[in-house]
Amino acid sequence: MTFFASLISLLIPVVVGFAFVRACIPGERYLCRHDWLRLCLGIGVGFGLCSCAFFLWLLTNGTAQSAYIVAEIVLSIVLAALAVYRATGCSLCKGPRAPETTLTRWKHPLLIVFGSIFLFACLSFALESRIHPEGQGDAWAIWNLRARSLFGGRDHWRDAFSRAIPWSHPDYPLLLPGSVARSWIYTGAETQTVPIGIAVLFTFATVGLLTAGLSELAGREKGLLAGIILLGTTSFIKLGAAQYADVPISFFFLASIVLLCLQNRLPSSGTALAGTSAALAAWTKNEGLLFFALLLIAMKWTKRPVSKALTGAFGILVPLAIFKLSLAPPNYLAQSGGIVLLRNAMDPSRYLQVAVGFLYQMIHLGGQSLNPMIPLVAALLAIKHTAKYGTRLAAIILSAMCVGTFFVYIITPFDLAWQISWSLDRVLLQLWPAVLFTCFHMVDFPVLKP
Fold first, then answer.
1. Which one of 172, 242, 334, 362 has the lowest number of neighbouring Cβ atoms within 10 Å?
2. 100 in a domain, yes or no?
3. Is residue 448 part of a domain?
4. For residues 40 and 38, what is the distance between their CA atoms, to the nearest angstrom?
5. What span, in angstroms and rounded, lies between the C-alpha atoms of 118 and 114?
6. Is the pTM here over 0.70, yes or no?
7. Are residues 49 and 71 in contact, defined by beta-carbon separation less than 8 angstroms?
C-alpha cells in the first residue's frame, strides 16, 4: 500500500507538469511526437509547481494533511482541462525538420549504443540506491533532513530554518525538500522510496530532455550522441542516485536553455515557460539565483522579451521571496561580512588556487582520470559552426555562470582548498547537460551526399 501511495505521489506532479507545459506549448488534440519533449519538461516543472504550492499551503494552514492531497488532485484536473482546451495545434510539428548530415547513416548504431548505455546507467543507479538508500552527504544532512522537518514538524515546521543548525544550510530553497515532504503526506510515513523516485525522475528526465531537445533542433542523431555522453558521465548518474539537488538544478538550467533555443518556434507562452524554468532553478539552489539574473540580463542584451519571462517566473518568485525574506537566515557570504569578502577578493594567491581547481575539475569531469568526453566536446567546438537561434544567448549565460562561480570561490569565507575539493565538481556538473546541448546545437556536421 505504501508503494502504491508513493507511486501516486510521484505521478501527480508529472501530470501537473505535463498539463502545465502543454498549456504553455499547445499540442494536437491527441498526442504527437513532441509530447516526449513536453513530458520531459513537465517532470521537473511539475515537481517545482507542487513544491511551491506545498510551501504556500504550509504558510497559510500551518500543516498539510489529507486536504492538501485533494487540493493537488484538483489542481492536476484543472490544468489537464486547460491543456485540452489549449490543444489547437502543435507549432513544433509545423516547423522545419532538422537537416540530414553524415550522422544520419549512423542512426541505428547510435540508437543501439544509447539503449545499451541507458540500461547500464539504470543498473548503476539502482545499485547506488540499494547501497545508499538514504542518499549520501548532503542528502541526509540537508535535503532529506529538511523534508523530515517539513513533514513531521507540523506546527513547528519553521524550526527547519533555525540558525542553530548552520551546517545544514537552512537558507537553501525548498524545491527538493518540499517535493519529498509533500509526497510523504500521501504515504503517511517517511519512506525512502519517495526521494529515490524523485531522484530517478530528475536524472533520467534530464537525459530525455537533452536528447529530445537536440532531436528537434539538430536531428535525432545529435540528440542520441549527446545523450550517450551524458549517460557516460558516471558522476552525473552517481550524483543523481546520491539524492543531491545538483541534478534537479541541472535539469532547470538545461530546460531554460532548450526553451530559449526553441523560442522562435513557440508561442509567447513558451518564453514565459523559460522564465518559469529559470525561476525554478532559483527555487532549487542558491546558484539558481545567479542563473536567473544572468538569463534576464542576456535576454535584455539580445533584445528578447524579458517581460514575458518575468511573467512566467512571477508565480515562483513570490514564494521564493517570502522564504528568503521571512524564514531563511542570511547566506554564509552575507554573514561573513564585507571586510572578509573584500580581503579574499584582494588576495592574488586565491585566484591562482581557484584557477588550478577549475582546470583540474574540468579535466577530471565525471570522476574519471581523464574524461574522454572532454576532448570530444573540444573537437566539436573546433568544427565549423554557425550562431543558430538561441546559441549565442546560451553561450553568454553559461560562460557568465562559470565566471560568477569562479568569483564566489574567490570570496568564500570557508577554507578554499576544502570548498574546491568538496563542491566544485558538482557545481560544474550542474552546467554539463546545458553545455552539451549548446555545443551540439551549434555544430554543423557535413551534409550527407546522395
1. 334
2. no
3. no
4. 6
5. 6
6. yes
7. no
SS3 per-residue string spanning 130-162: HHCCCCCCHHHHHHHHHHHHHHHCHHHHHHHHC
**What gap in Å lies between CA 298 and CA 292, rounded to an integer?**
10
Residue 25 cell numbers, joined: 506549448
Cell of 43: 517532470
Strand, helix or coil at 373?
helix
Q: pLDDT digit string (tens) for 129-186?
A: 999 999 998 998 899 999 999 998 777 889 889 888 887 889 999 999 999 999 999 9
Whole-angstrom Cα distance, residue 228 to residue 208? 11
Q: Which of 241, 254, 139 has the alpha carbon at shortest distance from 200? A: 241
Distance of CA 130 to the CA centre of its chain: 24
Lowest-confidence segment of 89-103, 162-176, 222-236 by average pLDDT: 89-103
User: Of 264, 239, 206, which is closest to residue 393 (Cα–Cα)?
Assistant: 264
98 located within any domain: no
Task: Write out the residue range of the structural domain in which residue 63 sits.
Answer: 2-93+105-442
CA distance 99 to 101: 7
Indicate whether 447 belongs to any domain.
no
Buried b / exposed e along 77-107 (16+ C-beta atoms within 10 A): eebbeebeebbeebbbeeeeebeebebbeee
Grid cell 506546527 — which residue?
155
pLDDT band at 449 (very low <50, low <70, confident <90, very high): very low
